[in-house]
Amino acid sequence: MSDPADLTIKAAGDAMRAGELTSLDLTEAALERARITESHLHAFLTLDQAGAKEAAAAADAALAAGEDAGPLHGIPIALKDNMCTKGIETTASSQILSGWIPPYNATVVDRLSAAGAVVVGKTNLDEFAMGSSTENSAYGTTRNPWDTDTVPGGSSGGSAAAVAAGSALGAFGSDTGGSIRQPASLCGVVGMKPTYGLVSRYGLIAFASSLDQIGPFARSVEDAAVLLEAVAGFDIHDATSIRGDVPNIRGSLSEGVAGLKVGIVTELSTTGIDPEVREAVVQTVNELSDAGAEVVDVSLPSCEYGLSAYYLIAPAECSANLARFDGVRYGLRAAGSTTEEMMAATRAEGFGPEVIRRILLGTYALSAGYYDAFYGQAQRVRTLIRREFAAAYEDVDVLVAPTSPTTAFPIGERTADPIAMYYADVCTIPMNLTGDPGISVPVGLDSKGLPIGFQVMAPALGEERLFQVAKAVEDIAGFTARAALATSEVVQP
Ligand code: GLN
Asked: Do 391 and 365 fall within a single domain?
């Protein structure tokens, strides 16, 4: 058998149930991969080797006793370090939370543990999930396993890099403006943002609460569906989580696209999109048409304003959410002779430059006299975008576009230019503004050998259709390439 670290969740589960592999073998293979690649990548902030091996041994014992918790039983997975893990440091990649150990688990963590998954560690991110390259982490940059001179995307760059490198078979991230789909695209893995409210955010360190969603990273569309099924559904601890039945997620996975109507979004597929990315997307769309889908062009003109609306709404919400980090309750506390001085010093010392920029922008946009001109206007644009997408879905089953306008860019290229960095999410932000689900599937490599992601979008709670089309895209593209750092030539000592 090939190295177990390279298996999909499905293949690893089959091998475990056939008695060819134990969870401990699999977990040790993932940890070994991390041991070899981490000095190049820095995908993890915390590796919990002892905890992972203990959980794997327990999973093996349970399986031997006939207790099978389902498709994630014994599977090593990684979690973005903005999800609370009881007893394991959780920093959101910020100095202000350095050393903070949560007293409780996020709901997703409890659900994964009930599903038998083995958590190998906590992954790096842009501080408080603000960024598109993982360069805003207070604990150092993560590198892309396809080319370590390039970024893995962000903000969930550590989760994407860990799955691409083989240090975990699946991972979870959060997506506020594209932070799952964009790094998945740049790292050649599948990444999915569920419908707003489908997955509980209890225990997720909040960035922008009307946009944040937790979702999976995996090496196949089916694996991503399995990961999502394990965590989706109503949670009494999250008032925004959706009551009622979870949509069928894997129900139509292999039904293909014959008879479906696919709309390619003009505004997200032309201007500002790298020609090689555009070509790969057009080719995939043509192949969907050959497979029996009806393909049409769809114009959604207000998408043009998505980025501007997002960069008012997200900072406005973050300025409120981050008010709680004041040196009193969590993590860092700087010196000061009065409470006010202590709070100001703690925040000045504890937050990095991008977080401070967002708080300032957001506070300004919400201030008296400017509220309606900025925040109010952005909300009106958001409504317009939502209506345009809803109208489009009256005619088509799914919409498609590139995930990211470019493939992975060199480390340092955009750090001095926030606007260039913000542009990385131009294709993903609309799904956060509408609350609808979106998924990125790798479809090819550019001339530099870097992965290109294809985005499928569906109406709210349209996960079944979304995964069905994503699976067809995966089958059509037949993407089997692996990151340089995950190939045996590199990792064999
Ligand atoms: N890159 C976007 C931002 O910086 C999106 C981040 C995210 O989805 N968490 O806000």
From this structure: no
Residue 349 lies in a domain: yes
- Do 395 and 372 have their domain in common? no
Query: Is 488 a residue whose pLDDT tops 70?
Result: no
pLDDT in tens, 244-267: 888 889 999 999 999 999 999 999
Q: Cβ(425) to ligand 1 under 6 A? A: yes
Amino acid letter, residue 80? K
Ligand 1 centroid – CA 182 distance (Å): 9
Which atom of ligand 1 approaches the CA of 311 most closely?
A: 10
Stated pTM of the model: 0.97
* Segment 421-462, tens digit of pLDDT: 999 999 999 999 999 999 999 999 999 999 999 999 999 999
Domain coverage including residue 394: 4-267+282-298+387-491
Distance 19 CA to ligand 1 centre (A): 42
Q: 242 falls in which pLDDT band (50, 70, 90)?
A: very high
| Nearest atom of ligand 1 to the alpha carbon of 429 | 5
Q: Answer whether 131 contacts ligand 1 (Cβ < 6 A).
A: yes
Q: Is 175 touching ligand 1 by the criterion CB < 6 Å? A: yes
Place of tokens 């890099």: 161
Residues involved in catalysis: 80, 155, 179
- The pLDDT of residue 153 is above 60: yes
Distances in Å between the alpha carbon of 37 and those of 25, 123, 411?
18, 14, 18
Residue 114 CA: distances (Å) to CA of 24, 59, 90, 329: 18, 11, 21, 30
Q: Is residue 275 part of a domain?
A: no
* Cα–Cα dist 289/283, whole Å: 10
